[in-house]
Amino acid sequence: MALPHPGQTKLDNAQLTALAALARFKGTRKQSEFVFLGLPLYSIAFGPDLEKGELRGHAKGVFAFGDMATGVVAFGGLAMGVLAFGGLALGLFTFGGLSIGLFIALGGAAIGTIACGGAALGVVAAGGAAAGYYAAGGAAYGAYVLDAMRQSPEAIEFFSQWNVLEWLGLVPKLRR
Predict the structure, then answer these.
(1) What is the spatial distance between Cα 65 and Cα 78, in angstroms, rounded to a whole number?
(2) 160 contact partners, CB below 8 Å, separation of at least 6
(3) Mean pLDDT, consecutive 10-residue segments, the chain of 176 residues?
(4) 68 in a domain, yes or no?
(5) Domain that holds residue 75
(6) Which residues pair with 90 in a beta bridge?
(7) Which of 17, 74, 116, 168 could bond 79 through an S-S bridge, CB–CB 3.0 to 4.6 Å?
């Protein structure tokens, strides 16, 4: 069932059925009256709004929750913000299925200065497959590597600063 495209004048039965199903589901749109830095304090936008021609909600606020969310703190399928949580998360500090963060990225696939995930790419990368200047994981690639085959002393020293990696078993305990 394909939805109609812009400019289409006649709808077939499958398109009419799809539009009727969408019309029964009313999306949610809410936002606070309080405005901070030109944005509502919170914004919530889920589902279609056929009156505005939107098939998915785009929330924009300090705290944004929606199908697509843009804000200081954003939660959504596509989330963009300083702190972004979502299927695809973009921002400074991110957590998501595909996480792209300027500073820290955590997720299934993570790209950032510090990246941690199933697949991680960054200056510092830790994960199942990790690539970075400092890399730790099942399969690691980089200048200083810590994996099953290679354990460079520089990588051990660098990653030993972070107790979390020791708890996860990625860094051997230093002998004193």
Answers:
(1) 10
(2) 166, 171, 174
(3) 58 69 72 87 87 82 95 96 97 97 96 96 95 94 92 88 68 55
(4) yes
(5) 26-94
(6) 80, 100
(7) 74
